[in-house]
Design brief:
By secondary structure, this protein is an alpha/beta fold. The protein is about 40% helix and about 25% strand. The protein folds into two domains: about 70 residues, Helix Hairpins (Orthogonal Bundle); about 80 residues, Roll (Chitinase A, domain 3). The longest helix has 30 residues.
């Protein structure tokens, strides 16, 4: 069983989703199935089929979240003491060509939110940044070609 790296915030968000699924969504879909069953012939009952499909999705997601939380390797970036880029780092980069600055935090696969600057540890960009330090220039292969970034800062917050 491999560990699933995640930040403290990522684990909390996953636990909240699991709690919502178990305490709200699951009972709600059970009620929907019961109501649809009361309408009679199940072979031609679209409401029943839809509710069963929804139940299947909810149960699958609960299993997935339970599994990931059981294998969670929680990393608190505030406890990391290095100047190198590792999981949990918040990095400020500058595009060498146009001097545009971007900030990213390297997070677990389930925490990704590009608009919020949360980049997966498994992404090609993150992989090329790992073990680099502030001041380094890194060439990152992106869909539009190669982009050179200068690492301006590496923080753990």
């Amino acid at each position: 069983m491999s560990q699933v790296p995640m930040t403290v915030q990522g684990k909390q968000k996953m636990e909240e989703e699991l709690k919502q699924l178990k305490t709200v969504a699951r009972p709600q879909v059970i009620q929907e199935i019961s109501t649809a069953r009361a309408h009679g012939d199940l072979s031609e009952n679209a409401e029943y089929d839809a509710a069963k499909e929804k139940q299947s999705f909810i149960e699958g997601r609960i299993k997935e979240l339970d599994d990931k939380l059981a294998r969670a390797h929680v990393v608190n970036p505030k406890e990391i003491r290095t100047d190198k880029i590792v999981f949990g780092a918040t990095i400020q980069l500058m595009d060498v060509d146009n001097e545009e600055k971007r900030t990213f935090q390297i997070v677990g696969v389930d925490e990704v939110d590009i608009k919020a600057g949360r980049l997966s540890i498994e992404s090609p960009i993150a992989r090329q940044l790992l073990n680099k330090s502030a001041g380094d220039v890194v060439t990152v292969k992106v869909p539009k070609g190669n982009v050179e970034y200068e690492i301006l800062s590496v923080k753990y917050e």
